[in-house]
Write a structure and sequence with these properties.
4 copies of one chain form a homotetramer.
Chain A: E1 6-7, E2 13-14, H1 17-23, E3 36-38, H2 43-52, E4 60-63, E5 69-70, E6 78-83, H3 91-106, E7 110-113, E8 130-131, H4 134-137, H5 157-167, E9 171-176, H6 178-194, E10 199-204, H7 220-239, E11 244-250, H8 257-265, E12 271-273, H9 287-298, E13 300-306, H10 331-345, E14 351-355, H11 358-362, H12 368-386, E15 389-390, E16 392-397, E17 400-405, H13 406-409, H14 421-430
Parallel strand pairs in A: 6-7, 6-9, 9-10, 10-16, 11-13, 11-14, 12-13
Antiparallel strand pairs in A: 1-15, 2-5, 3-4, 4-17, 7-8, 16-17
């Protein structure tokens, strides 16, 4: 995999004037331009690489952080921000921190916000462009949602690059998920085709935490943290009535990270169903039989299901939403009906309560740790963009901020490894079957 | 209406021994046995009553509180607690405070908890009876749900009274709503028929706040307080996308208090639909037309609907649940589909997000003000029961704790007055139409 | 006591034009101009009054609410708002609701906010006046503090009335406590002296809940709700170590309502000390002896002290702050040191943790029930002001919104009745001595 | 530095019977016994190591996780848990997860809890030993504090090992900070001296996050998350009054991580003072001059100070507490008085509010991410102990759970690097001086 980061040209301006002034004769702790972080941090990987000799450098990410020389002249460059896709805790924190870092740390004076996603870059929609000043964004980190608004779906890259060009934008920050970054790739390619000097730097936003080569995305921790309120509710309801069953559907189209993390954070969960681990409903080793055994033994049960799990049970032809995501049929509602009727058929008097906290989670403000994460992600995105790096995302790997080529990040999806540490902990804490057949 | 409270017999034991000891030579501030609180507290009611002369005393409630003389001997009486119906914040607070007040204030030594509602009083179900000790209940007020568990539906009064009689119970505290109190009435009548000396004292529990002659029920404030999180989420989602619509379904089978109060507490709501105020969907003055005007003018809208509103749109024959409540068809889901299709038909591109926070609310622990309310309700329930009062509920009226005959409380339902102060404030704050046709 | 409300003149404009338009042919549910609510709502008071005959009407408050005829022409009148004294949860909610009600319900077009309390009405300080538009205040209810800022201390009424006159203000809303309302009285008297037509309507703001004739002030519930976090912390610390003592100082200069309510809401408190109930430290019946008995019996203790309690132990000459409040010496710190040294002297190995959550409470946003209360208080303040009522506060009495003459409200202070229901509940729940000597 | 982990002897029992049964014919994903994680994960370190040849393996930690072969027979081994030092969010989560993992995953049947720290291992104190059953610990993770209680200070290792020996304990889990681990070392050495087969496995607990070779300790995230409530309060108070100054003291005896992280999470902080970066108060570049400039420019300021910062200003001879920690004089109170008097002397009218949220933070329950962290830490501690590893802590390094020799961990303290990424982000976000002289 190629982790090389593209650049608009050599950096030449000594990094940032106002910073120097502020720090007086202090030397700022810049990151060396070529510092890299290993992809595989095990000792054995290091040994392997040693055996193989110098030509085969191990896979490594560029380390993020401020560089001594920058590409853009802060007093002249114009930056813009666009937020796309579904809501996710922390978007406003990222927008705020981009504006603050650009303004106060580098002295950039023109920052614009496109409204309602990529649609805001298309004149036909007629959305105004916001002037992103420190005054406007000062308190937005206390609110969920996006100051800029969002929308789903791609737009014509040529039209969007026309807009950037016409407005004299030098840096575009794209905040979004998989679809957004495919869009950012298209914009970046159109920019390259025209030979424009516009940096495109993404900040990955996916509540599902499923971006490849990025250890953690912002909003994810807030998401599973709020999810545990639904789990606690399910547990209280389940344990407050004879043969009570609490069923919680959580987000996770392809990757069950929210469900898995929530179950580790609130150990009242007895079974977690995720897209990465197939399950069966019928038979001695199926979900219904497991549930009946659990009720017999303990009198109540809490099940958490990620929205992308068990799609094979739902049948039918799926359409796609404006972002190109396949419209998932509702596994939660399916299980609610299926489990109820199976228990009823088996003569098990019971009470099943179903909870889907989706929008309460998506619209929440970032929790403190996510706030911190958003703030530092944005600082590093600004550092990268000011050096002229482009076609890249700011990521994090083994707790160190990194630069990731968009092309590499969108080449696949990050999934829970059913043989890995996370799922092992889930199996240990729930005591659920490691396999369903 | 008759607000006279029944009693098992004259109170004679000087109130409570251990309290006297504790207070030394202090005089305790007992409530005079016949102190009453006016039903109508307006000056004009007082004037009317004056004109009418002494024979026609105005309607008034017995005031709750400790009496100097009590009926039961604390060292001998056995008390029991049963919690019925759906979960509601504060049940554990009430159970805890009953136990603490009985134990430490009066010196009662035997307190039992029936499990899983009235079913726990029927031997055939085989549920154990819990020994409610201070140690067991010390920390339960931090948790939602019910330590005792709950269930819906009536049981045979004769069987339940058999149980009380066999266990030598002198006081039964019933925590529940309308159905529970009908059950308590039946138990009370069976006790009277047999000439037993068992006091039945209810603590009204209805998350909907719809008990007649009771100003406020416990858990209601917590309920609308948590509901505003769903409203904020709906607002963030609605305002974060072009023509965003947030639709929140809240509890309220017959009475829209939760919806109305939530809208006053979080003024992002643009329209509240409650069972007490009919609405229309079609036509120039209907909901769809209103929504289209709102979107045109402001670009987003938040609608809150109580679950019992607009049932006439849902048609069909309704079954009833185990508590005898009519199974409401889901007005929230109906409106979600109807509004979406109407807007689509009208060519209005939009995005509607639906939130139903029901179980997250029901299972929550009581907030501090509800905790305080539960604690004082329980103290007053114990005071009333110890004097031999029976067939009554502890209520609150114009902020003063009262005794309410169960018969009076179950004779109807408390509803929002569409001409009253609460609904007027809602109309002022939302700016929604006062009438839909 | 005289509860008559002053007016600027007869109301004549038919109430409010834009409301009528909005409601179409609906009749609005106005409150009759002379509707009153009894001060004493007991049946015996009604009986007494009946015996005494028609001349002696019982004491009663004007009921708040919209009137059919108003005094000010909404399209012309200019309103202003000032917030004074210490911070309290809900100030922003009140300001927001005043602006919304004036703008959308009555159609008032000019609303100003003075900055930093009465100082903002004195040109010499040079503070700008804010234009209070719906856009500006839309989201401020999510934040604690005051958008307008605040300050302590009186200013010259003549100078302030000059400002009102020069700006053409017709209505001044004053949000503040005892000192603020004395200031509002002075402004009101200066206005009367000059024969100006300016209504002065106050909204009582005191976190201590100590305004006479007002059952509850906004922010108070939020205050004791947050206070229980400190109590829980104290309990966790106390019970987590041998002979642990948790000591929490809460607000309450003259009235211990926050301490008393917090103890009822979180029953881990073993002793509450308030200004209204004197206590002793030494001797067999003193606090130290009580604490030693408690530690011996239970191994830990939690004490809550209101800041105004036990001032006699602190000695010294007290100065006053800018609001004229006597600077209380710190009873919490005094008890911390005193109890520690007494226990040490008695050879009791222990660990005392002291918590003072003051500013965390004062600066918090209003909780949902307080938000609702602020919103309706403000609606009623606007209703009253629009009718030309002046020299009054909006209060609440037995859960009904009322008009209270400022003169009556500042004639004393509301205190906990040591023989009343609240303190009785506290004694029952803590089990603490009813008297300390 | 030596990162070799000691063991009691070779592991031989095939890992855990009940797990195998549960998983049926599934292969469990064990961690290879010698898997290691690099200390330095930069590409350049890997290059260096390559140049230097095979003899010099780079520094690396053993990776934590379940091993195929274990040392103790689960059906026979007895485990014990002790919690020492000050409270910290998450202690109960760790205790719960230890019990659950031992019981349900490995089938261990005897788990004991010593009460009140190391004192509980000394018979003379007379504390009972708790039987740690799944029933007892099921819900304790919802509460702050420690079920077991805690105390400070060392006890005689010989007496403690006598206790372990007498009780037949095979595994001792120690939950605590620096002092606790020195105690655990002493216990471990005494065990070795006697040739006993008792594993000592620590779980590092320090709210300050200052354990060497451990990236993050549990409770730390919860701590800085709650700290931002104090910062928000300080900001609301500061910005609500002319020249308002909010001063917050946070924990951090030697390391300012809580202060630094809180400032990144809530960017209303204008200045962070930590032990690692000296500051001056007087002079053109001192704190007072900075504050005056800030007030002149912005009208308010928020300062966060870690308790261990600026100790040189406090003078005096410091005593030590029972844990051997130097009693820090209160820099927060010192700055409160000093800044107030300096501003007063300079004629700057202002208002300073001081907040110290210490015990509210320490006693809080763990937030969801910390809960998850505690649960997985405990799982890994159990895995390590069952293999007979001893004299070690479970740590985390670059997001991977590791084994750390206690001797290495207590050989120093983890400090913020003033030239590192964290402090750079703080400087960027606050805009405060990088150096004070």
């Amino acid at each position: 995999m190629d982790l090389t980061i593209e650049r608009l040209g050599p950096a030449r301006i000594h990094s940032p004037l106002n910073l120097s002034t502020q720090l007086g004769d202090q030397v700022c702790n810049f990151v060396p331009d070529d510092e890299k972080i290993l992809y595989d941090v095990s000792l054995s990987a290091c040994r392997t690489c040693r055996r193989e000799g110098a030509e085969t450098l191990p896979l490594a990410f560029e380390r993020a952080g401020p560089r001594e020389k920058i590409y853009f002249d802060p007093s002249k460059v114009r930056a813009a921000v666009v937020t796309c896709g579904g809501l996710c805790p922390g978007i406003n924190n990222v927008v705020r921190a981009l504006v603050m870092e650009l303004t106060y740390h580098y002295g950039v004076r023109h920052i614009y916000g496109f409204r309602f996603g990529y649609a805001g870059m298309v004149p036909d929609f007629g959305y105004d462009v916001l002037d992103l000043t420190p005054e406007l964004v000062r308190d937005i980190h206390h609110d969920g949602g996006s100051l800029l608004g969002s929308s789903r779906g791609p737009q014509d890259p040529e039209v969007m690059v026309d807009t950037l060009d016409r407005m004299g934008i030098g840096i575009l920050f794209t905040i979004g998920g998989d679809g957004t970054h495919r869009g950012a790739m298209a914009i970046h390619e159109e920019i390259s085709r025209r030979g424009l000097k516009i940096a495109v730097v993404g900040i990955p936003k996916t509540i599902d935490n499923d971006i490849l080569l990025v250890e953690k995305t912002f909003g994810f921790e807030t998401a599973f943290s709020i999810a545990i309120e639904a789990i606690r509710a399910a547990h209280v309801e389940a344990s407050g009535t004879p043969n009570g069953v609490g069923l919680v559907q959580l987000m996770g189209r392809h990757s069950g990270y929210i469900a898995a993390n929530a179950a580790l954070a609130e150990p009242d969960v007895n079974c977690v169903l995720v897209p990465e681990v197939p399950f069966v409903i019928d038979g001695e080793r199926g979900l219904v039989a497991w549930l009946r055994r659990r009720l017999e033994k303990r009198g109540h049960a809490v099940i958490v299901v990620a929205e992308g799990a068990g799609q094979e049970f739902l049948g039918g032809n799926h359409s796609t939403d404006a972002s190109g995501n396949v419209d998932l049929a509702d596994i939660g509602l399916y299980l609610k009906q299926r489990l109820t009727s199976e228990l009823k058929a088996a003569g098990v008097s019971h009470s099943l309560k179903y909870i889907d906290p989706s929008y309460i989670i998506r619209s929440a403000p970032a929790n403190p740790n996510d706030s911190l994460f958003c703030a530092t992600l944005a600082q590093n995105a600004v550092h990268a963009a000011m050096t002229g790096r482009t076609g890249m995302l700011v990521g994090i790997w083994h707790n160190i901020f990194t630069h990731v080529p968009i092309a590499a990040a969108v080449s696949g999806r990050k999934l829970i490894d059913p043989e890995g540490e996370l799922w092992r902990s889930v199996l240990e804490i729930t005591g659920q079957p490691a396999a369903w057949q």
